[in-house]
Amino acid sequence: MAFRTLHKTSLIRGISNRKSNFLKPFSTINVLRQSADVTNNQTNLESLVPPVSTPLKKPIRQTVVAATESITPYNISISRLMAAGLHLGHSTSLWEPATLPFIFGTREGISIINLEHTLVYLRRACNVAREIALRGGSILFVGTRPGFQNLTIEAARNCDGFHVSSKWIPGTLTNRYQVLGRHAQPDPEDPGRPPKTYKPDLIVLLNPLEHRIAISEAQLNNIPIIAITDTDYDPRRVTYPIPANDDSIRGVELIAKVLSTAAREGLHRRKQLLDQREKEKKLLRKQHSNRY
Predict the structure, then answer these.
(1) What's the confidence (pLDDT) of residue 172?
(2) Out of 42, 184, 225, 285, which could bridge 195 as a Cys pair, Cβ 3.0 to 4.6 Å?
(3) What span, in angstroms and rounded, lies between the C-alpha atoms of 175 and 178?
(4) More confident residue, 230 or 1
(5) Which residues share a beta bridge with 245?
(6) Is the pTM of this model over 0.90?
(7) Quick one: which H or E segment has residue 11?
(8) Is the four-CA dihedral 97, 98, 99, 102 of positive or negative sign?
(9) Residue 258 and residue 76: Cα distance in Å, rounded?
(10) What distance in Å separates the CA atoms of residue 287 and residue 292, rounded to the nearest whole number?
């Protein structure tokens, strides 16, 4: 009996020692976890407080403007056109059959514009604006819808062009001597002579649906027209249509900015060519004077 009791006590002590040795790693793990949680909480609290050297965040309007400023006719893509909402057309009940080649399909009763055609026609219009500016022509931007006024003025100022942002006065081109003559400066040599008025070499219409009179006047004066044509407008009425959504202010701003950038490139190229010609003329004059 004594041997059994001694054996039981030794077994109990061995089991207790094993339990204590088995529980020691778990206790150390808990301590390490607690210390790690404390350090993580401290680091999280430190990360919440920004350092002094971090710059302040810009307003959303400034970030959007900065993101769209770098868009040029060379880096414009279908993803940017889709982000601006230019693929959304009008309802199928307002569909113009002449826009069938530009329509990708319909979804929930709305026509979807194929942006591959939009990109091609936009680049063609950019080439036209660039070449006209390169040859010294004047470009007129017309956008009179609410929300289009500021972007129309900015696009015209960007390429040293002209703009109509309030209302198109009938007779601006066909009767320009009376409509525009009263706003022009008189000739200082002959004040009695009617002042000179000029016609634009290119018209960019941002909302052609409301400017049928302007389109007819431009056709009578043989002035080419670049216009944003939606699915409810006949693109055959203008010279260079751009199939896109004309109700999206962001999309219209994108197209106007790309066209004005192309025209500004033409102006810059023209100035370079004129400077080069002047340098060549000066060099020829010096050579001619040295001979004689």
Answers:
(1) 87
(2) 184
(3) 6
(4) 230
(5) none
(6) no
(7) helix 2-48
(8) positive
(9) 8
(10) 9
